[in-house]
């Protein structure tokens, strides 16, 4: 792995540069742990300083030169030191030499690892810092002995001193993408960030170790880490240097914490003694963390645990885990999470004998969406005599671990243990779950309906009916799905989980129908009952999120979408590798980014969804459709077509309810390829289909797509035998008329704004107002298209508002990522001859300074030209320039 471009740390870099260029003379010393990125940050800051304005010298102190006078600054000072001069005279000579070399420019002296400077060099740095025409920048390693003159830099108030914090999660993710040459899925990036504790050096070694062991894989351009890696020598050397040699007593403390963290402090002291725990804390190996009223102990760095656990012999590991289980059991196992921890320790140590404990722990792990751990515990429960309950739970978990064949085998293995209505209802539903969604058998819904009468108890029958209802929803039997769901809600004997699943069906249908307020109330009811249904039926969360995501995207509620993808479920799904959950939420994240005009983020989110759902029969078709839509918005026709083909290949009939999103994407893929007439036909057909299904919420979005394609006055006729109350042949309406009609059907302000957009297509000033209204809601994709239509209309009519419209469009495009919709392509003004030449050279990789010299322009003029080009092309940086010029056929 070669060197990577500098990413992140924008605030720290800005502060470093300001210290050197502000003219105050105050420097900056950055402290931090080894590998935190101090040296790289210093190099980047110094490299950005113009040497024609500043005399910039850099020095890297090291242990080899620490005993030599001025050895630390040998790279900076002249080689011909005067002989026979006193130490004070040498210092005066060194200061004068630096000023002579500066030739009147302010001095910037940057010293890396200043704690390793020899005494003479440290004193010289102090003297330079006192000079009003000089600034000192430097780095120190935390915890090291610092020479007195260097410490005096901030105690005498000559420089600022700051601790360099670990990388943030966002910067860590950007660095991973730079290291690997492509985006990394969120859960993998999160795990690597936590394991490296934001240390770039450790992150690099982790990536190398994971790559070498084949645990980093790339799918649909997205890197994903399995969570496993082999300890590489370089990584273990780094950790060993931090841990050092351990006594037997301290090693026992570290091992118990490594296998048991977080472990209560009193428990650890009882197991190992006060002195050993205090010694481990003094050496920085463990740390205390307060949790409610309990003081827990964790390792000081996550990688310490990885090293300790992987090096511990298998028999010792089993003994330690058995001891941890006994310690917690003796203390009473008072907390809910203690059950899960003890069960895992018992299982790993070979001392698990209680199937009931294993079963309860498996259910708890599944309720946290840790599917792999839940499957281990449920299998162990089945093997130790857990019977029907263990088999039913294991089959369910295997289904959500994307092992439907194994799940079907397990559920069939406990068929003979059905001896009550309760067991029959649970067996029927888990078999239906596996058959319908896992194996893609559409006949499963009919088989389930046929078996329902065999369950005579009303409460248990409600569970079976709830599963039939959601199957029918997904295969687009809307009327039957609604009928069954209402029957369940009206049944007092129905369990909370059955009622919640029925409410999810109703909420989804209401969202699709545009009844967004009622849908929201139904969703709130399901959320309020979550504590009662989550342990019994945690996967109901998928139905809840599908209903909620559908509603929020139709409503264009970006704030609520952000809250949804940042909710606890998102974290649990990522951490537990619950791919159906994390994959669907990635789709929602991509849809939100698309509406914001952030096509790059939308594409990354959809690629992440595609990678997570690569083996899924449920949401894969939707993920690829969103990927196609994002690529189409970026003008990437070939990628959009490929993604759409992947959507068609992976879509299953059992998830037909997702067709509105897929058909919208299909239309925009056609528009991207230049087949606007085909796109219009696809959307017109979609509108008719949605109207026949009564999906007015989705219909509004499709109609507005037609408005964005310039078809507000297009007649849209429809015919439906499914809605006889509307007549077999309804009178044709224009798109604008139908949108106006739907303002009385679909809830919320967005439909009114879309109807206004349709009415305003002939009025540039009104289109400007519509664009501003979309922008205020954050819907920059719609705002940009409305602004493009306004600019084109006003330019065509030679309106005095045309310049204002162009400026407004440019501002919107500056806030968006790359966008290439038909409206934007039509409205973008042509580039001037000078702008074309600047853009051509920039796209060829020529630097601004060379462009300026070649075209006899100032550097500022070149940058101004480039910024205007970016706005006209709808891009944000040079890396997108070649593609954008090609798309516009610019020379």
For this entry, give a set of tags.
891 residues, alpha/beta, 46 helices
Task: Write a structural description.
The protein is an alpha/beta fold. Among the domains are: 10-163, Rossmann fold; 169-229, no CATH class; 231-312, Arc Repressor Mutant, subunit A, CATH 1.10.10.10; 332-417, Serine Threonine Protein Phosphatase 5, Tetratricopeptide repeat; 830-891, Winged helix-like DNA-binding domain superfamily/Winged helix DNA-binding domain (Arc Repressor Mutant, subunit A, Orthogonal Bundle). It contains 46 helices and 12 strands. It is flat, with a radius of gyration of 33 Å. Mean pLDDT is 90; it is low at 720-729. Residues 824-889 form the HTH luxR-type domain. This is Regulatory protein, LuxR.
Radius of gyration: 33 Å
What's the N-to-C terminus distance? 38 Å
Q: How much of the polypeptide forms β-strand, as a percent range?
A: 5-15%
CATH fold assignment of the domain at 10-163: Rossmann fold
* CATH architecture name of the domain at 10-163: 3-Layer(aba) Sandwich
Going across the biggest sheet, name each strand in turn. 2-3-4-1-5
InterPro entries: AAA_16 (IPR041664), P-loop_NTPase (IPR027417), Sig_transdc_resp-reg_C-effctor (IPR016032), Tscrpt_reg_LuxR_C (IPR000792), WH-like_DNA-bd_sf (IPR036388)
Keywords: ATP-binding, Nucleotide-binding
Pfam families: AAA_16 (PF13191), GerE (PF00196)
Organism: Phytohabitans aurantiacus
How would you sum up this structure in a few lines?
This protein has 891 residues and is α/β, with parallel strands linked by helices.
């Amino acid at each position: 792995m070669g060197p990577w471009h500098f990413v992140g740390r924008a605030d720290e870099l800005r502060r470093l540069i300001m210290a050197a260029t502000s003219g105050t003379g105050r420097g900056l010393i950055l402290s931090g742990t080894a590998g935190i990125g101090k040296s790289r940050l210093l190099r980047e800051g110094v490299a950005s300083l113009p040497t024609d304005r500043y005399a910039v010298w850099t020095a890297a102190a090291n242990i080899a030169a620490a005993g030599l006078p001025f050895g630390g600054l040998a790279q900076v000072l002249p080689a011909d030191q005067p002989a026979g001069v006193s130490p004070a005279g040498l210092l005066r000579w060194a200061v004068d030499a630096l000023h002579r070399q500066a030739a009147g420019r302010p001095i910037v002296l940057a010293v890396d690892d200043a704690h390793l400077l020899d005494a003479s060099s440290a004193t010289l740095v102090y003297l330079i810092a006192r000079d009003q025409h000089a600034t000192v920048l430097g780095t120190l390693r935390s915890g090291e002995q610092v020479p007195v003159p260097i410490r005096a830099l901030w105690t005498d108030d000559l420089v600022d001193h700051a601790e360099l914090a670990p990388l943030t999660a966002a910067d860590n993710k950007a660095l991973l993408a730079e290291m690997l040459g492509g985006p990394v899925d969120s859960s993998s990036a999160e795990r690597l960030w936590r394991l490296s504790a934001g240390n770039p050096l450790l992150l690099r070694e982790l990536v190398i170790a994971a790559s070498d062991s084949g645990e980093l894989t790339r799918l649909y351009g997205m890197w994903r880490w399995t969570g496993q890696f082999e300890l590489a020598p370089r990584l273990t050397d780094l950790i060993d240097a931090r841990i050092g040699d351990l006594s037997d007593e301290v090693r026992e403390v570290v091992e118990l914490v490594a296998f048991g963290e977080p472990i209560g402090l009193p428990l650890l002291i009882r197991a190992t003694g006060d002195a050993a725990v205090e010694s481990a804390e003094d050496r920085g190996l463990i740390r205390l963390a307060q949790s409610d009223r309990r003081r827990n102990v964790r390792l000081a760095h996550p990688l310490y645990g990885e090293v300790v656990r992987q090096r511990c012999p298998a028999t010792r590991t089993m003994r330690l885990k058995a001891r941890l289980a006994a310690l917690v059991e003796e203390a009473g196992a008072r907390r809910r999470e203690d059950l899960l921890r003890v069960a895992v320790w018992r299982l790993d140590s070979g001392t698990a004998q209680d199937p009931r404990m294993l079963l309860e722990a498996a259910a708890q792990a599944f309720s946290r969406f840790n599917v792999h751990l839940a499957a281990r515990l449920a299998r162990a429960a089945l093997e130790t005599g857990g019977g029907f309950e263990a088999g039913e739970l294991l089959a369910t978990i295997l289904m959500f671990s994307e092992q439907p064949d194994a799940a079907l085998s397990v559920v069939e293995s406990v068929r003979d243990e059905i001896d009550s209505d309760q067991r029959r209802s649970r067996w029927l539903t888990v078999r239906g779950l596996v058959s319908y969604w896992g194996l893609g058998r559409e006949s499963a819904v009919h088989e389930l309906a046929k078996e329902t009468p065999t369950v005579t108890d009303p409460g248990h029958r409600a569970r079976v009916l709830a599963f039939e209802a959601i199957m029918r929803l997904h295969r687009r039997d809307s009327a039957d799905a609604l009928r069954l769901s209402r029957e369940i809600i009206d049944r007092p004997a129905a369990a909370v989980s059955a009622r919640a699943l029925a409410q999810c069906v109703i909420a989804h249908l209401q969202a699709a129908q545009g009844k967004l307020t009622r849908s929201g109330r139904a969703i709130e009811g399901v959320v309020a009952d979550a504590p009662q249904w989550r342990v019994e039926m945690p996967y109901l969360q998928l139905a809840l999120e599908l209903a909620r995501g559908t509603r929020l995207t139709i409503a264009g509620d970006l704030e609520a979408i952000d809250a949804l993808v940042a909710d606890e479920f998102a974290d649990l799904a990522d951490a537990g590798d619950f791919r159906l959950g994390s994959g669907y939420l990635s789709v929602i994240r991509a849809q939100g980014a698309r509406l914001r005009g952030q096509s790059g983020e939308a594409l990354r989110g959809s690629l992440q969804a595609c990678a997570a759902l690569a083996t899924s029969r449920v949401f894969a078709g939707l993920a690829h459709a969103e990927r196609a839509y994002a690529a189409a918005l970026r003008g990437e026709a070939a990628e959009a077509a490929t993604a759409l083909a992947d959507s068609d290949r992976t879509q299953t009939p059992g998830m037909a309810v997702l067709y509105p999103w897929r058909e919208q994407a299909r239309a925009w893929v056609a528009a991207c390829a230049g087949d606007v007439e085909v796109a219009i036909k696809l959307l017109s057909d979609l509108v008719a289909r949605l109207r026949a299904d009564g999906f007015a919420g989705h219909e509004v979005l499709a109609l507005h797509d037609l408005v964005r394609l310039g078809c507000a006055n297009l007649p849209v006729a429809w015919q439906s035998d499914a809605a006889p109350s509307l007549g077999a042949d309804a009178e044709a309406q224009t798109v604008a008329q139908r949108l106006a009609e739907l303002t009385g059907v679909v809830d919320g302000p967005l439909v009114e704004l879309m109807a206004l957009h349709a009415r305003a297509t002939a009025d540039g000033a009104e289109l400007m107002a519509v664009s501003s209204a979309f922008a205020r809601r954050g819907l920059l994709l719609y705002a940009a298209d409305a602004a493009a239509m306004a600019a084109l209309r006003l330019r065509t009519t030679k309106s005095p508002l045309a310049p204002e419209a162009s400026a407004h469009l440019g501002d919107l495009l500056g806030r968006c990522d790359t966008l290439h919709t038909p409206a934007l392509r039509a409205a973008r003004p042509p580039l001037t001859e000078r702008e074309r030449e600047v853009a051509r050279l920039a796209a060829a990789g020529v630097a601004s300074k060379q462009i300026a010299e070649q075209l006899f322009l100032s550097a500022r003029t070149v940058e101004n030209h480039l910024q205007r080009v970016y706005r006209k092309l709808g891009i944000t940086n040079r890396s997108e320039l070649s593609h954008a010029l090609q798309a516009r056929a610019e020379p």
